[in-house]
Structures are given as C-alpha cells and as structure tokens.
C-alpha cells in the first residue's frame, strides 16, 4: 500500500537560514511525488514534482527536492528562507491506478525575522 | 490565464439549510475533484469526476452531492449542513493520466470557506 509521512508537523527557521522539510513515502515501486504549498486561506500551489526523469528536482521560489530511493525519502529544501515562505507544505503521492492522491499530514513552516 | 475559480470565497449558511458551492475551470481538464479541508489538516477527497463519470469516496457522507453539467463547471451540494461541515472546500482539476510519463499534478482553486451557524 502507498503512504506518505511528513516527519515534522512544525518547523521554525530564521529568515535567511536553510529550510528542510522531511517526507518519507512507502510504495512498492518508484512513484511520482509532489510538494504543494498552501498559504493561509488559499488553495494549494504546486512547488515541484518528481516523475523519474531526474532525482534532483528544482521548483518554484528557490525550493528543490531530492528523490532518494534507498531512503524512500523526498525531502524539500531551500538554501535561504524568506518571510513569504511561511505556509503549510504537503508532500503528496498519486494513488496507483487512479486519479486519487495521498496527502501527507502537512508541515507548518514558521519563518522568524 | 488558465485557472480554477471557486465561488463564493466565503459562504455562511444556517444549520440544515442547503448550500451549493461552485467551481469552474478554463484548463479544459477531464478530471475535477472536491476536497474538504478542516483546520490544520490535509485535504480530504470527497469525490471526483472523470468527464461525466462520478466517483464517490467510500466515507463521503450522503449529505454531500455533486454535479458536473459540462467540462468547465462542477458543483458541490450540501443538503443539510451540520456544524461539523464547517471547513474549507477545495476544487481541483487534472488532465488524464498520460501513458508512461508519470502522473499529472492537480491544479487547485482558492477554496470556499464555509461557516455553519
């Protein structure tokens, strides 16, 4: 069965310091994986997606993620946090054989001035 | 710009009074989804349409219904809202699953926040 686990419910960083949001997945094969961001009272926006073309994926707003099959991880990183990065982040894996997706529980990112 | 639009952005209704939320898209995507998202939780899929083919999640209450009169529009009807139905409702779209090239992402609207008094 497929599943996705976001290891931290909350992450707090100072502006200008690196961001690391952790995601582990469980799948019997190499899946597609997505990271979405949700700002307060807004819809979800795609940050980046992995579809097996390259293990290091670059997304919008300076975010990137690396797919590591050996560790079943797809952690999201950014070298330098900005105040506007404060939001909820969801790691998502598509459900095999259909249109549904499986969401992680989300990680709330706080950015301190 | 191609997009997913939800109206209204904020909806207040009374306990037990039917309410309809709407979603439209200019992306011409085959698949449309409705999610319910409660505070500090991940979105929960209620149902989705593949063209006119309706797919209900097993745990979606009967109180929730949906209509898709054409490719562009999809509606969420809550027949008798309860206090527990207060939430953000998100509409999303995606293309067909392409052959051999992975899964397409979903495009989300801004959501409708429903308050039940």
Structural features, described:
The complex is a heterodimer of chains A (113) and B (117). With 113 residues, chain A is an all-beta fold. Chain A has one domain (3-112): Immunoglobulins (Immunoglobulin-like). In chain A, 0% of the residues lie in helices and 53% in strands. Chain A is built from no helices and 12 strands. In chain A, strands 2, 5, 6, 10, 11 and 12 form a 6-stranded mixed sheet that branches. A 4-stranded antiparallel sheet of chain A has the order 3-9-8-7, with no helix packed on it. Chain A has a two-stranded antiparallel sheet with strand order 1-4. The termini of chain A are far apart. The mean pLDDT of chain A is 91. By secondary structure, chain B is mainly β. Chain B has one domain (4-116): Immunoglobulins (Immunoglobulin-like). Chain B has strands at residues 4-7, 10-13, 19-25, 31-37, 44-50, 53-56, 64-67, 73-78, 87-94, 107-108, 112-116. In chain B, the strands form 2 sheets. In chain B, strands 2, 4, 5, 6, 9, 10 and 11 form a 7-stranded mixed sheet that branches. In chain B, strand 7 and strand 8 (73-78) form a beta hairpin. Chain B starts with a strand and ends with a strand. The chains are: A mainly beta (113), B mainly beta (117). Chains A and B meet through strand 6 of A and strand 5, strand 9 and strand 10 of B.
Using brief descriptors, characterize the structure shown.
heterodimer, A: about 110 residues, mainly beta, Immunoglobulin-like, 6-stranded mixed beta sheet, 4-stranded antiparallel beta sheet, B: about 120 residues, 7-stranded mixed beta sheet, 11 strands
Characterize this entry briefly.
By secondary structure, chain A is mainly beta. Chain A contains no helices and twelve strands. The mean pLDDT of chain A is 91.
